[in-house]
């Protein structure tokens, strides 16, 4: 029985984690996201993977996208000044490859949608020079360079910047993106995936999910209607939002709350999806005081709108959604 109904603006998200740390290839996550084919429209798909670079696990792995050779050359000059580049190479791809498994919701009339006309895709394994971290941590330094590249180096975009992890994303259906990036040849202990159905933001290679900063990765279904407030809240802390999509704020908010302000992830989630005041009033005293303080201190970080989010990081995976469950997850 075939159902021709679908939910517009209902992106697909999926995540797989091995609690034992055993790594598995990307076939399972590709198959998982393909079962939600009709929740995306071919304007964006992507994956985050953790544990994929064991040989370079102590180095920052920058997955880069360049509009042209000139942009690549400009960015490389910048990277050479700011980092010690240990290795760089073109990212392996399978041009024209498409997912050949069973895809739920895909009609025969659609045909195949090979990934065509990608930007220049390159990866760099880099260390932070000791002299650059006299007054800041290496992670704070890396965040600053990511912001600088994305905002100031025309035609260059940092897709991911963590250690022993990476983002693989682009314009297309997610299962075809997975084939294009040869994810069957990578092994990871955490995989997340996203199929995009953009409603009010453009479909472009940098705008596909996941959004990453250091080892944080975000895949998101829904809409962050508080984007403007969240953006203004983040900018005084040095975050530059250049990617033309609401999901970007979520990755930066987690970096701010957990890495810089040292909040436990559980409390950070309560900041972003805070209980209503009427629910806070009914809490036990200690819990009520904590929830009240979080709302008062981090009001600008509260997310509004319907959303379900999977946060990936090197130590685990977290799923949470909006306060009234307009975008549920299972």
What is the radius of gyration?
A: 20 Å
| Nearest-integer average pLDDT | 89
Largest sheet: 4 strands, antiparallel
CATH architecture: 4-Layer Sandwich
Give a structural overview.
Helix 1 packs antiparallel against helix 4, helix 5 crosses helix 6 and helix 6 (248-260) crosses helix 7. The chain has one domain: 4-Layer Sandwich (Glutamine Phosphoribosylpyrophosphate, subunit 1, domain 1). The protein is of the alpha+beta class. A four-stranded antiparallel sheet has the order 1-10-3-8, with helices on one face. Helix content is 28%, strand content 24%. It has helices spanning 27-34, 69-82, 138-152, 174-180, 227-234, 248-260, 265-272, 277-281, 285-297, and strands at 12-17, 24-25, 45-50, 60-66, 84-90, 120-127, 156-160, 165-170, 187-188, 190-195, 211-213, 216-222, 307-313, 316-321.
Summarize the entry for a quick read:
With 330 residues, this protein is α+β, with helices and mostly antiparallel strands. 28% of the residues lie in helices and 24% in strands. It has a single domain (12-321), classed as Aminohydrolase, N-terminal nucleophile (Ntn) domain (Glutamine Phosphoribosylpyrophosphate, subunit 1, domain 1, 4-Layer Sandwich), CATH 3.60.20.10.
């Amino acid at each position: 029985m075939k159902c021709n109904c679908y939910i517009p603006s209902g992106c697909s998200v999926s995540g797989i984690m091995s609690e034992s740390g055993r790594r598995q290839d990307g076939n399972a996550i590709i198959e998982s996201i393909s079962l939600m084919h009709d929740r995306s429209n071919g304007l964006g798909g992507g994956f985050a993977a953790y544990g994929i670079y064991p040989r370079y696990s102590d180095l920052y792995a920058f997955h880069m996208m360049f509009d042209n050779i000139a942009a690549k050359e400009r960015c490389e000059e910048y990277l050479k000044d700011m980092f010690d580049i240990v290795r760089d190479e073109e990212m392996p791809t399978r041009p024209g490859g498409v997912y050949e498994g069973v895809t739920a919701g895909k009609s025969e009339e659609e045909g195949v949608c090979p990934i065509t006309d990608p930007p220049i895709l390159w990866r760099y394994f880099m260390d932070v020079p000791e002299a650059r971290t006299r007054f800041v941590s290496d992670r704070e330094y890396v965040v600053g360079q990511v912001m600088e590249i994305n905002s100031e180096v025309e035609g260059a975009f940092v897709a991911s910047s963590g250690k022993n992890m990476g983002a693989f994303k682009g314009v297309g259906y997610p299962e075809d993106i997975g084939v294009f990036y040869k994810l069957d040849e990578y092994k990871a202990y955490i995989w997340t995936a996203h199929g995009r159905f953009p409603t009010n933001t453009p479909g472009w290679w940098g705008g596909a999910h996941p959004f990453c900063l250091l080892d944080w990765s975000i895949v998101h279904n829904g809409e962050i209607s508080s984007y403007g407030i969240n953006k203004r809240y983040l900018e005084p802390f040095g975050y530059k939002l250049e990617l033309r999509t609401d999901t970007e704020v979520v990755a930066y908010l987690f970096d701010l709350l957990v890495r810089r302000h040292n909040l436990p992830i559980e409390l950070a989630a309560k900041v972003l999806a805070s209980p209503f005041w009427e629910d806070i009033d009914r809490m036990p005293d200690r819990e009520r005081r904590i929830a009240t303080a979080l709302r008062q201190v981090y009001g600008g970080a509260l997310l509004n709108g319907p959303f379900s989010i999977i946060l990936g990081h090197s130590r685990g995976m977290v799923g949470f959604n909006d306060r009234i469950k307009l975008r549920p997850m299972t």
